[in-house]
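Inputs:
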Amino acid sequence: SQTIHQWPATLVQPVGSPLSLECTVEGTSNPNLYWYRQAAGRGLQLLFYSVGIGQISSEVPQNLSASRPQDRQFILSSKKLLLSDSGFYLCAWEINYGYTFGSGTRLTVV
Amino acid sequence: KNEVEQSPQNLTAQEGEFITINCSYSVGISALHWLQQHPGGGIVSLFMLSSGKKKHGRLIATINIQEKHSSLHITASHPRDSAVYICAVMPAGTASKLTFGTGTRLQVTL
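Outputs:
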């Protein structure tokens, strides 16, 4: 079956610290992968998407970066977190317009 | 003006009531998704539509491409239906990226 794993579920990090969120998928090959963010009281916004290994497109300028070192692994990173990076981060994969979402990571930068 | 507008923003219903959530969008689309987000944040895809109507259990989703409008109906609502329901569209020509509405918060009481 097709599953998506995202961790950690919650994270509290100080301003200026690094970030690494990981997402892995199972049961599919060469999916399109996405990182979305939901800021408090706002809708989901696309941050990055990837159509293949090493191929990353950024949708909005920001303090974050993404990498896809393996076909089924998608990583969201930051070298130095800002307060404005707080939010709910969702990984998703898509094939033929059908989406599967991870369980999300709630990040609080303090 | 957002590309995807949902109404109402908040909805309270009594158990057993018939519920309708509306979504209007302003761009041509390849597909439209209805998503359910529970209090913990995880998102589940309920429906993907490109035309007509789909039904799954007590949930029904319809879309009118000409009018750029979709509705999600819940029959015989139950407290476990309490969640945020999100409409998301795939604008035509943007690969499979999603543009999200801000969601409708549904509370079903006994």
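Remarks. The CA atoms of residues 7 and 28 of chain B lie 20 Å apart. Chain B is about 0% helix and 60% strand.
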